[in-house]
Amino acid sequence: MELPVIRKSADLSVEPNLREYAAACKTFSWDSAQEWIDGLPGGGVNIAYEAVDRHVVHGRGDHVALRCLGKQTQTDITYAELARRTNTFANALRSLGIEPGQRVFSLVGRVPALYVAILGTLKAGSVFAPLFSAFGPEPVKQRVVIGSGVAMVTSAALYRKKVAPVRDEMPTLQHILLVDEPGDDVSDIPGALHLTELLAEQSEEFDLAQTGPEDMSLLHFTSGTTGTPKAAVHVHGAVVAHYATGHFALDLHAEDIYWCTADPGWVTGTSYGVISPLTHGLTMIVDEGEFDARRWYRTLAEHHVSVWYTAPTAIRMLMRAGPELAKEYDLSSVRFVASVGEPLNPEAVVWGREVLGLTIHDNWWQTETGGIMIANYAACDVYPGSMGQPMPGITAGVLQRGEEGRAQAGPDGHVVEVPAGEIGELALRTGWPSMFRAYLDEEQRYNKCFVDGWYLTGDLAKRDENGYFWFIGRADDVIKTAGHLIGPFEVESVLMEDPRVAEAGVIGVPDPMMGERIKAFVSLKPGVDDDPKTLRRELTAHARRRLGPAVAPREIEFSDNLPKTRSGKIMRRLLRARELGLPEGDLSTLETGPVPANEEA
Ligand code: ATP
Ligand code: MG
What confidence category does residue 581 fall into, taking pLDDT thresholds of 50, 70 and 90? Predict the structure, then answer.
């Protein structure tokens, strides 16, 4: 049973950027999209120029770029102000001898200085590598060493806790740029400078580095859901894709108030929490606080957010908080909601309609793709559970897999696309501007991602008759049971249909009869105290009814905390490792409890 399609009415409150999908796919080309950005006055392209300075040039300098919601304060920063501040940051890097191409890391919460640092670094032609501030010393060290970081933007408290214990092991790291107000003794921090003092000495004028489209801009580490995080290299030319995907997939307009709830430590929080929205010249909410259902609803209502980009894990937390809370707030300003990062279970889409009165638009992409690749659009019908259709300019395919479960070229060197309805590896035709250009220092691994003109995503999917894509699972996560190929998401979604279930993680456990048997880990909503035996029986019966006996889980284990990455994704590899008593591998991205409070204080 599939949920009914959500038909989009013709009279959306704001004229959508993409009205006719098929027509847009026909007319759009990445070459013509170059006209959507300005380019540097002297030639070349620089992300920060497109995100900041060009709005000043076009007379929108007074428009608010960032509305920063601090713990006690609220600060508005206009585009003109952001242009000046990022200039001082770029000058500061120059004054420290930091050169174009060198890497500047951040380990700090969502404070204004972080945004100034990201954009200022790009202006200087240096490379920015954001880290999530809740990382501990090991993951910090691992990433700074891979990226040869020369500077880090952080706070004294975070430094002492997470950097000091491993500082000796990061010989390239020379400058520690502190966001704290000067005053406290920081003589224990080698190379420490207070940003306020450093920036005060700098000129507010800066000649932007003449970066070209292929110059490195950002170094992004993958979430580490399936193994050790990889360092994906991105370039300045990607900004065309940041603009175009914001235009098509998030329907960004210059008058929008936009809120992306992802932290810039993850690619979503940079591509769509900094760059894409600013290239559209809109006002962006920057929330320093962590998840809190009441405060989130209040933020949406009080700041009249019109476009909201969030993640399934956050939506499931709102669902846990109950429908009554949502009803206390006027969310009528919200025009468009999108979600990314994990599969969005159909039940969450239904909840969005019923409780928020909004359609949640799932979209799909990866650290490696640099931008949204497959999406549900404002003016297109939504099939709950589908991640939508490829962006104009993107060709997505579902490729036949070889014995190892990954797409493989035949003896003639070519891959084959499977027919609609069949499962294969999701792949993208190479050549879009935000495609990663390398895994830093891992050439072989990078090369293995490409076959016959396609980039292989490592995810399995199918395409339906309407051209919509459906996520099945990661190639590593799919389960082979009694001759069936099953994606964990399908089983998890059905378990989450039970109102008592908050979240589920499904894995295959080796079984002599069936190849693998399906095991589900289930966390319950607060206050559910049903007898586990009865509940297990009822959930199994529901799953058998919905999925058939072959696909229903054979085992259900109740677990309060499913292991998750710091960005909130369920780590099935860890569930499997624990189940089988295998080594757990790299855990640097593991979330061990509830979403961490910002540890900066
Ligand atoms: P690693 O590559 O280190 O294992 P990761 O793949 O989780 O980590 P990201 O690049 O942050 O790192 O995540 C991209 C992946 O997240 C996709 O390949 C896909 O598996 C999953 N994903 C993202 N969006 C969606 C979506 N809308 N539906 C289903 N899965 C999604
Ligand atoms: Mg990945």
Answer: confident
Return the best residue to mutate from 223, 383, 571 for the ligand 1 pocket (most ligand atoms within 8 A of CB): 223
Q: Record the pTM.
A: 0.93
Name the 3-class secondary structure at 135.
coil
**C-alpha 261: how far from chain center:** 10
Please list every protein residue whose CB sits less than 6 Å from any atom of ligand 1: 222-227, 229-230, 340-343, 362-364, 366-367, 387, 457, 459, 471, 474, 569
For residues 119 and 547, give the distance between their C-alpha atoms in angstroms, rounded to a whole number: 49
CA 353 – CA 339 distance, rounded (Å): 14
The string of pLDDT tens digits covering residues 360-396 is 999 999 999 999 999 999 999 999 999 999 999 999 9
CB 378 within 8 A of CB 390: no
Give the bridge partners for 153, in sequence order: 106, 177
Ligand 1 centroid from CA 265, angstroms: 15
Atom of ligand 1 nearest to the CA of 230: 3
- The CA 39 to ligand 1 mean position distance, Å, reads 31
Chain position carrying tokens 């009249």: 304
Q: How many C-beta atoms lie closer than 10 Å to residue 449's C-beta? A: 16
How far does the centroid of ligand 2 lie from the alpha carbon of residue 355, in Å? 32
User: Distance between CA 292 and CA 198 in Å, rounded?
Assistant: 35
> Measuring from atom 27 of ligand 1, which residue has the nearest CA?
364
pLDDT over 70 at 130, yes or no: yes
pLDDT tens-digit series, residues 386-403:
999 999 999 999 999 998
Sequence-distant (≥ 6) Cβ neighbours of residue 375 within 8 angstroms: 245, 248, 249, 338, 361, 362, 363, 364, 387, 388, 389, 391
CA 341 to ligand 1 centroid distance, Å: 5
Distance set, CA 588 to CA 149, 171, 582 (Å): 18, 21, 17
Q: Would you place residue 600 in the very low, low, confident or very high pLDDT band (cuts 50, 70, 90)? A: very low
Q: What is the distance between the alpha carbons of residues 199 and 287, in angstroms, rounded to a whole number?
A: 23
3-state secondary structure string, 513-582?
A: CCEEEEEEEEEECCCCCCCHHHHHHHHHHHHHHHHCCCCCCCEEEECCCCCEECCCCECHHHHHHHHHCC
Query: Which residues have CB less than 5 Å away from ligand 2 (the ion)?
Result: 222
Does residue 38 contact residue 47 with C-beta atoms inside 8 Å? no
Task: Identify the residue whose C-alpha is closest to ligand 1 atom 14.
Answer: 366
Question: Whose CA is closest to atom 18 on ligand 1?
Answer: 366
The protein residue whose alpha carbon is closest to atom 30 in ligand 1 is 342
CA-to-CA distance for 444 and 366, rounded, in angstroms? 19
The tokens describing 557, both together, are 């284990």
512 CA to centre of ligand 1 in angstroms: 31
Instruction: Please give the number of the atom of ligand 1 that sits closest to the Cα of 374.
Output: 27
